[in-house]
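We include the pair:
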Amino acid sequence: MRRDHGVPRGIVHRLTIESSALKGNLLGDPTERAIDVYVPAGASGEGLPLLVDLVGFTAGGPAHTNWKNFGENVPERLDRLIASGTMRPCVVALPDCFTKLGGNQYINSAVMGRWDDFLLEEAVPFVEVRFGCGGSGRRGCFGKSSGGYGAMVQAMLHPDFWNVAASHSGDVGFDLLFIADFPKVLRALATTDNSIRNWLERFFAAPKVKDQDVHILMILAMAATYDPDPESYMGVRLPVTLDTCELIAERWANYVKWDPLTLVEKHGEGLKRLKALYIDCGDIDQYNIVYGSRRMHKRLTEMKVQHVYEEFPDDHTAVDYRMDVSLPFLAKALSEPVSS
């Protein structure tokens, strides 16, 4: 049941793509991937801008097209925004980027797979050719949490590919985001004799997934992303000692180099090429991301990178309603003429 039956309904196309970029990933994840593609009501997609939804940890693109109780899924939200004139029409692609470890950060990893290459070399060109949408000057990405991190990092690394980006509560400020969780992970591993393999095998075999275990899994997934060890089970090793929880400097350095606050020092100038950059975060974000977001906003301002930064009175959970702000902003920027 749709929340509003009177709004013209766009079409969601389910495509599949066989990925070469994901072949050989050490998790054994499938290389055939679904991409849901939203096309506005009455349109074919031809000539429209393209936005790519980078979904957060524990989800994939198709989760955003599923029916949602007491709310809207992304296609329904797009229908409402476009029908009301709040948002200019866009094609929106929602690729399945889920992994066995619960998700990914949309960068290349020797363990998780070459997700950066998947997006730029495979998924986006595939959608653009199929629907005649997007193209140079007319494509962007957005996401929340891990997806917000992905949008920010994609924009920094590839400002000639992406033209707009929005990060909702995206991972930033790794010292505040991750370090406090390492003792919790060690306590969890202690129940399996400090064996990451035994803990993961127990997790995969459990008849019920517990919320606290998903959070442990997320930290292990970050390890396989930022400091992958192909010799370890599923590529996971921690950047702390297992007995005293002391940071192992060379391993932690591998995380820090992927913190947006580090990347911006080398790649921040590229953000000046974007047509629009949007960043927001809840002011009581339980993962402390608001503090990293403020640091990023401060640094971008110092670098004279044009962007919109907003804080809102909420935490990290269930904040899809913020798309009502970001998506019209991105779509308007993408609808502007492409510079010659």
Summary: The chain has two domains: 11-173+260-334, 176-256. Strands lie at 11-18, 32-39, 50-54, 91-95, 108-109, 113-114, 139-144, 164-168, 276-282, 308-312. The mean pLDDT is 97. The chain has eleven helices and ten strands.
